[in-house]
Amino acid sequence: MNNYIKYISYAIVGISLLSLPLSIPFIQTNQEYNIFNKEWNGCSEFGKIIYATGKPVPLMLPYSEYEFNDGVLIIIASDIKYSDSSISIIKEFLNRGNVVIIADDTGNTNNIYKELQLPVKIINNQPKDLFYLKDDDLLITPNIKGFDGKIITNKPSYIDSKNGEIIRTSSISNKILMEEINYSNGKIIVISDPDIFINGMKNHNKDFWTYLLNDYKGKTIYIDEAHRSTNAVYDIGTSYVQNNISNDAKFVLFIIMVLIFYLIKRIDLDIFNFLFKKKINLKKISEENNIEYDKLAKMIQKIKD
Q1: HSE on the CB side for 274, CA within 13 Å?
Q2: Which has the closest alpha carbon to 303: 273, 279, 271, 278?
Q3: Cα gap 14→253, rounded to integer Å
Q4: What pTM, to 2 d.p., does this model score?
Q5: Which of 12, 101, 146, 183 is most open to solvent, judged by the fewest CB atoms within 10 Å of its CB?
Q6: What pLDDT, in 10s, does the model give residues 215-261?
Q7: Three-state SS across the chain?
Q8: Boundaries of every domain in the chain
């Protein structure tokens, strides 16, 4: 009887735990281009792709405060000039064979290319083209090297370079919007429009986000959140999601749990009996201990019962 009470108690506790609300930690902000910003101008949806691809590490402090493992560094819409020490860290990161992705339409990251002695420059001037969505601010770029699809840019700038471009506008304006540059053992991917990563462009560019990160599955992906002049006020807390389990479902779970506990107990007993049953020789025990065999057998049977 005590065992059944124990099984019932276990089942009640288990169902109670299933009924408790889930505790989910969250971080959010309203800073533009931030991966914790869930509004239209944030990059939280791109952050989800990063999380699904590799191991995301947001950089909230100067680069010198971090130990960089091998992987990918993503810089989106940074408007603070990079110091010599930060560029040295980027250079060392590239020398080890890693990848840096920079999305910038203002030219604020041009000093990185200059210090790395790369013939690349962001020209802060919006190209116009005949292929656009709704108006000529939203350019359609269907010709992307290696990608079977198109992306929509939002007031992009263009890249002054003669390296290997990946995205270019049509032959009407013929401007480079994205290119890949080999540097030492690594490479830099330069994109002249950070807006392709914002939540408001998800429906148009999500497939491209996945394509861009496809080669970096399982790797550490650093996201630079430190080089923006607008202060990011972070809201850090915990949200709770109530588990709504119906009474009928609770009853079924209760019965299942009781049966499981009972079967586990019975299996343990059966295994014990199976292991030791053949090893017990009652006749030998009765002879060695001067006990009548019939009495010993009856005693053991009563204990079993």
Answers
A1: 6
A2: 273
A3: 9
A4: 0.69
A5: 146
A6: 999 999 999 999 998 766 655 554 444 556 666 666 666 667 666 76
A7: CHHHHHHHHHHHHHHHHHHCCEEEEEEECCCCCCCCCCCCCCCHHHHHHHHHHCEEEEECCCHHHCCCCCEEEEEECCCCCCCHHHHHHHHHHHHCCCEEEEECCCCCCHHHHHHCCCCCEEECCCCCCCCEECEEEEEEECCECCECCCEEEECCCEEECCCEEEEECCCCCCCEEEEEEEECCEEEEEECCHHHHCHHHHHHHHHHHHHHHHHHCCCEEEEECCCCCCCCCCEEEEEEECCCCCHHHHHHHHHHHHHHHHHHHHHHHHHHHHHHHCCCCHHHHHHHCCCCHHHHHHHHHHHHC
A8: 2-20+243-304, 26-237
Over residues 236-248, the pLDDT tens digits come to 554 444 556 666 6
Long-range contacts of 61-64 (CB under 8 A, 24+ apart): 61/226, 62/86, 62/226, 63/89, 63/90, 63/226, 64/89
Dihedral angle sign, alpha carbons of residues 183, 186, 187, 188: negative
pLDDT at 171: 65
**Following CA atoms 167, 220, 78, 87 in sequence, which dihedral angle do they give, to the nearest 10 degrees?**
-100
> How far is Cα 204 from Cα 199, in angstroms, rounded to an integer?
10
Q: Does domain 26-237 have CATH number 3.40.50?
A: yes
CA neighbor of 5 nearest in space, from 301, 265, 215, 300: 265
Could you give phi then psi for residue 136, rounded to 5 degrees?
Answer: -75, 5
For residue 242, what are its two tokens? 């109530």
